[in-house]
Design brief:
The complex is a heterodimer of chains A (236) and B (219). Chain A starts with 7 loop residues before the first helix and ends in a 21-residue tail after the last strand. In chain A, helix 5 packs across helix 6. With 236 residues, chain A is an alpha/beta fold. The longest helix of chain A is centred in the middle third of the chain and has 13 residues. The relative contact order of chain A is 0.19. In chain B, strands 4-3-2-1-5-10-12-13-14-15 form a ten-stranded mixed beta sheet, sandwiched between helices. A three-stranded mixed beta sheet of chain B has the order 7-6-11, with no helix packed on it. In chain B, strands 8-9 form a two-stranded antiparallel ribbon. Chain B starts with a helix and ends in an 11-residue tail after the last strand. Classes of the chains: A alpha/beta (236), B alpha/beta (219). At the A-B interface, helix 4, helix 5 and helix 6 of A face helix 3 and helix 4 of B.
């Protein structure tokens, strides 16, 4: 089954105003750069974006925020983005902050065909407000529902034309969960190969979860916090 | 003298035991990795999907696909493993991580912690902190005893929105090592040269003092 499309524009063709999107990545690591650029170009608005973070001011989801294309953001950590904070505090942007593990597991539940999960994260905090609490073996858990999203936009390292995906290092993060959770999943990869060239033993996301795949171009892979050990000028 | 951030990290590193899987939060907790005692082997878990986090890369060897939960470029150590975010929080929730070290804005004497939001002022989000505190078997908080105005952050009740309830076991601040007990904060150790009187004065929660309180042993 060939799922290859040729451009990001073609891949996102049916994302419209008001669509609910899952976007993979942690910080700027493993984000679908090409799909985000295509959404900016297309100019769709009133989007609901579900992603661990909200990008930075001039990259990632930050590019969509800057153009006011996002109506609602569901995320776990949104620091390092001044425009986001401004839109949030002024009430322009609807924001739902949820624990990171809850975010991941609500995606997982959707991909596993389970309507909800129970998690202890947030018990006794404002995250628990309005939610059902159940006690199992003496400990309280919150009922959290599986996400119901129109599209998932994920980024992988390698993929094949069947939609099978392999991620690299910590750029894996939320991508496999979100790939499983989208009604329509769009994968962009650094290297797209014909079916049969990837070792089936090493596939992270089986192609059944992926509807469209394309080879991305011009990955910037920005680093948010460049931390290094200095080399000594003269090694003894 | 109050401890520096590095000294707080050094004192927390003394709590590490051989064979521990450890999650270090952002800020002072990250520094704990620099003080792991000789002969103690621990595996560092980074909740964005890595077991076996190594030091920062050498200049010029930074890899944008390899970061920690603080989005800093890092390396791996031999025997490391990558996984996705659901599995990462799965192992946290299942109690596989032996020790979690994180920062706090406030801790109450019940062991409640607040570290993710200041209403109307700062909204960064909880990240993985709520998952970690709800499930970790052992939680140590690294924090300053007081805010810049000198007001205690170690309280009877937290005033900020909570991250988790009844979860903190121990606090290492710039002034003291405290254990959370039924009776209040048990003063285990003082920073070198800091008096019991000063700690008492800067602790708004109940402070329990049993006998002579030793000074922390630092290198």
């Amino acid at each position: 089954m060939n799922k290859q499309v040729h451009t990001a524009e073609e891949a996102i063709k049916d994302i419209v105003n008001g669509s609910v999107l899952l976007l993979g990545g942690f910080g700027l690591c493993g984000i679908p750069e090409n799909c985000i650029a295509a959404l900016v170009k297309k100019g769709v608005t009133n989007l609901t974006c579900i992603s661990n973070n909200a990008g930075v001011d001039d990259f990632g989801i930050g590019l969509l925020l800057k153009r006011k294309q996002v109506k609602k953001m569901i995320a776990s950590y949104v620091g390092e983005n001044a425009e986001f904070e401004r839109q949030l505090l002024s009430g322009e942007l609807e924001v739902e902050l949820i624990p990171q593990g809850t975010l991941a597991t609500r995606c997982m539940a959707a991909g596993y065909g389970m309507p909800a999960i129970f998690t202890p994260a947030g018990v006794g905090t404002e995250v628990a407000e309005g939610k059902e609490v159940r006690n199992f073996k003496g400990k309280d858990y919150l009922l959290e529902y599986a996400f119901d999203a129109d599209f998932a936009l994920v980024k992988a390292w390698k993929g094949d034309t069947q939609g099978n995906l392999i991620y690299k290092e910590t750029a894996r993060n939320f991508n496999p969960m979100m790939a499983m959770a989208g009604k329509i999943t769009i994968a962009e990869v650094e290297e797209l190969v014909p079916a049969g060239e990837l070792d089936p033993n090493n596939i992270h996301t089986p192609g059944i979860y992926v509807h469209r795949i394309f080879q991305g171009a011009g990955y910037e892979k920005r680093i948010e916090q460049r931390t290094v050990r200095k080399r000594k000028a003269a090694q003894e | 003298m109050a401890l520096t951030k590095e000294q707080i990290a050094e004192r927390i590193a003394q709590e590490l035991q051989d064979g521990y899987y450890v999650n270090l939060g952002i800020g002072i907790p990250t520094l704990v990795a620099n003080f792991i005692p000789e002969g103690i082997n621990v595996v560092l878990q980074s909740e964005n999907g890595l077991l076996g986090m190594g030091p920062f890369p050498w200049e010029g060897e930074e890899d944008p696909d390899l970061i920690n939960a603080g989005k800093q470029t890092i390396t791996t150590v031999p025997g490391s493993a990558f996984f996705d975010s659901a599995m990462s929080f799965g192992m946290i929730r299942a109690g596989k991580v032996d020790l979690t070290v994180l920062g706090a804005m406030e801790v109450s004497e019940k062991g409640d912690i607040a570290n993710w939001k200041i209403p109307g002022k700062m909204v960064k989000g909880m990240g993985g902190a709520m998952d970690l505190v709800a499930s970790a078997r052992n939680i140590i908080v690294a924090m300053m005893h007081t805010n810049p105005k000198g007001e205690s952050k170690i309280l009877l009740e937290c005033t900020l929105p909570l991250t988790g309830v009844k979860c903190v076991k121990k606090i290492v601040s710039d002034l003291a090592v405290l254990e959370v007990t039924e009776e209040g904060f048990l003063l285990l150790e003082r920073a070198p040269g800091v008096s019991v009187e000063e700690i008492k004065q800067k602790t708004a929660g109940r402070l329990v003092i049993k006998g002579e309180v030793p000074e922390m042993q630092l290198a």
